[in-house]
Amino acid sequence: MLHPGTKLTLQQRERLRVIGIESSCDETGVAVYDSEKGLMADLLYSQIDLHKEYGGVVPELASRDHIRKTLPMIDQALSESGSTKHEIDGVAYTAGPGLVGALLVGASIAKSLAFAWNVPAIGVHHMEGHLLASMLSDNPPKYPFIALLVSGGHTLLLACHGLGQYELLGESLDDAAGEAFDKVAKMLELPYPGGPQVARLALDGDSSRFRFPRPMTDRPGLDFSFSGLKTYTMNTLHNITNPTIQDKSDIALAFQTAVVDTIRIKCQRAIQQTGLSRLVLAGGVSANLALRDRLKVLGSKHHVEIYYPELKLCTDNGAMIAYAGLQRLRQNHTEDLSITVRPRWPMTELN
Ligand code: KG4
Ligand code: ZN
Predict the structure, then answer these.
(1) What is the distance in A from the centroid of ligand 2 to the CA of 9?
(2) How far lies 138's CA from each of 38, 134, 283, 334, in Å?
(3) Torsion sign across C-alpha atoms 163, 286, 214, 240
(4) What share of the chain is helix, strand, coil (3-state, %, to 5)?
(5) Three-state helix/strand/coil letters over 246-276
(6) Which residue puts its alpha carbon closest to atom 2 of ligand 1?
(7) Which of 194, 241, 259, 275 could form a disulfide with 182 if both were Cys (CB 3.0 to 4.6 A apart)?
(8) 99 C-alpha to ligand 1 centroid (Å)
(9) Is the beta carbon of 309 within 6 A of some atom in ligand 1?
(10) pLDDT (tens place) for every residue of the chain, 351 residues total
């Protein structure tokens, strides 16, 4: 019980408002999240046009563009949310994993604002941000649950027992699922970013033409490996002289089906191994509709609830960083003002 006149600490206060900055790769995201009002502003700027001509993200160009965009977007997010700087209780930013230069831009701006506004800075783990994005939906999952995190840099299966209590069940030993999509897109001469393009091309594919392998499903365990599947895809393509659009569509579909089915098999094993009855999908590849549909079927077969963020919150965004930052602020996970980032940062170190 508090004495009258005692100042509440941030952790004791019921209502908090946090601004979140995402700058780990090729998207600048800035959002304001309030524990009572929810998402009050959510701005996203994609650098796709900047990197397109190079066929992938150029780290130095990414950093410079984050410098140009972040501060104006912070101004806009404050104004769209109707917030003054005095109403912001913390500045959350992506501290890793990601591109070091891009991360440093977000970290420097976040720490400077935290200093100027005299509020804490909160360094958020990018993949925890993705994981918690599903909490922003109308029907958020309750702990404990299995999480399938599939992005451009990570493929992780986790048993999540609470905020920051993540048990690693399996992970990719080489390419991440999104990375494999991006590399296959390049082979098929599709523009960057490749995942959505492969998915689009696969729509016209003939499913009876090829059957690609489901890597690492013939042995026990929950780890993934997509590098061999990528090579198999390349060899199939090279065996066709002058491939037509139809050939490429058939290959795109066979590749996507193999990735989706491999993930489905591992998720089914994770359900059996843990006995958990909720499965949360997150990360860029969770925007893939074939994957969502396949896991929905798995869920109904095994009486497991399937959760995923709305499509725009699957890929990188500021909302997930603001939300995760607020949860971490409640746990007093704040930082000093030294500017450090962690380009490599295993998620289990959050525990
Ligand atoms: O989470 P994210 O936006 O960034 C990282 O943290 O990496 O994920 C980006 C990845 C890219 O590899 C992109 O190709 C993939 O997600 N992706 C997709 C789809 N949308 C995005 N992959 C397959 N199908 C999609 N619809
Ligand atoms: Zn991401």
Answers:
(1) 32
(2) 11, 9, 18, 28
(3) negative
(4) 45, 20, 35
(5) HHHHHHHHHHHHHHHHHHHHHHHHHHHHHCC
(6) 284
(7) 194
(8) 16
(9) no
(10) 445 556 678 878 899 999 999 999 999 999 999 999 999 999 999 999 999 999 999 999 999 999 999 999 999 999 999 999 999 999 999 999 999 999 999 999 999 999 999 999 999 999 999 999 999 999 999 999 999 999 999 999 999 999 999 999 999 999 999 999 999 999 999 998 899 999 999 999 999 999 999 999 999 999 999 999 999 999 999 999 999 999 999 999 999 999 999 999 999 999 999 999 999 999 999 999 999 999 999 999 999 999 999 999 999 999 999 999 999 999 999 999 999 999 999 998 998
The alpha carbon of residue 165 and the mean position of all alpha carbons in its chain are separated, in whole angstroms, by 18
Distance 193 CA to ligand 1 centre (A): 8
Q: Is residue 283 a contact partner of residue 178, using CB atoms and an 8 Å limit?
A: yes
Return the ligand 1 atom nearest residue 126 CA.
6
Does any ligand 1 atom lie closer than 6 A to the CB of residue 285? yes
Ligand 1, atom nearest to 316 Cα: 3
Both ends of the chain: CA-CA distance in Å?
Answer: 30
39 with 309: CB under 8 angstroms? no
Nearest of 339, 332, 331 to residue 120 by alpha carbon: 332
Determine the angle formed by the axes of helices 227-238 and 245-274, rounding to 10 degrees: 160
C-alpha 284 to ligand 2 mean position (Å): 6
Cα 283 from Cα 209, distance rounded (Å): 30
**What is the identity of the amino acid at 164?**
G
Pairing of strands 145-150, 278-282: parallel
Q: What ligand 1 atom has the least distance to the C-alpha of 289?
A: 26
Location of structure tokens 């001469």 = 189
